[in-house]
Amino acid sequence: MSDVAFAVDLGGTNIRGAIVNRTGEIKHFRTVRTAVRGGVYAIIDQIVQLAEDVFDEYGSRLTAGVGVVAPGPLEPRAGIVRFAPNLPGWENVPLSRLLEERLQMPVVLGNDGNCAALGESMFGAGKHVDNLIYLALGTGLGAGIIHQGQLIEGIAGLGGEVGHVSIDPNGSRCTCGGIGCMEAYIGGWAIARHGEMAVHSERSSLIREIAGDDRITAEVVAKAAQQGDAAAIDIFARGGRALAVGIGGLVNVFNPELIVIGGGLARAGDLIFEPFRSSLPHYTMLPIYQHIAIVPSALETNTGVYGAAANVFYQLPDRMTSS
Ligand code: ADP
Ligand code: MG
Ligand code: ZN
User: Fold this and answer.
1) Whole-angstrom distance, CA of residue 165 vs CA of residue 126
2) Does the beta carbon of 263 lie inside 6 Å of ligand 1?
3) Domain containing 256: what range?
4) What pLDDT digit, counting tens, does each position of 215-270 carry?
5) Are residues 159 and 110 in the same domain?
6) What pLDDT score does 315 carry?
7) Whole-angstrom Cα distance, residue 186 to residue 143?
8) CA 179–ligand 3 middle distance (angstroms)
């Protein structure tokens, strides 16, 4: 029986790894710049080295298991990374099997949104809450749903893709190939693109001015909006409303008590939250709406590590009590 997990976050430009216990304390945290040019095996070596380092510090190799979070697309049940936007050359990598062979421990792979939802419900803003929708407003719109204490996973562990719920049959094309996905309105990439369009159509000059010679990002559009640029304010208002339409539908289906919001784009604050909050009642049945609280993420910078650990405790409960 072990009360800790070894958690690895492959999502950023660094690999982050740590021992995390069941009450959500991060111990022996280590980080290393991801050797993206080295290919799959160089990165596996880095993870194994990082594991050995933290096990040495911890003084034991006894864990409930190893949790790995990656941005995906993944096959979580099969432990396969089909493709990773931040890891060039990764295609159909059987990551769980490769790490199990090297570490001689069970490995569970999970996507960032679903793991973060588990992390928030175990250690974060949704502690002791059995019904929540987690949203990561980042470059895309990541998410996870916990319903009656269970993660919504579906047949292959791919469920919970809230960001790719379509809200407009005639909407614009999403990065996933779908049409009118929520992400195409409120993902960071979409906000940036709408910012570019506002500049090209001469509805905004401030966005270009703030960006200077650099790329227009969602952060730039947010700055323009904060300085009163009408086109930029409208981009966020439409994004917040789009989010309310899609989330309203899910709220009606799942009757959650909490919506937890994290991600870099959430720093735009009321530019998104005001239109989101004020529109949500229009797309939710009143008795269901009355149970909802909307709160910020409590995990933030270490969301990936917490999520990877939570996924171990969630997916490997038997080992916790029987080993
Ligand atoms: P991911 O993990 O999906 O790459 P993050 O959660 O780090 O993304 O969020 C990145 C997104 O947040 C980008 O689109 C970026 O432009 C946006 N962003 C970062 N800071 C701010 C800010 N202060 N205001 C608005 N958007 C921001
Ligand atoms: Mg992310
Ligand atoms: Zn999509």
Assistant:
1) 23
2) yes
3) 128-298
4) 999 999 999 999 999 999 999 999 999 999 999 999 999 999 999 999 999 999 99
5) no
6) 95
7) 13
8) 7
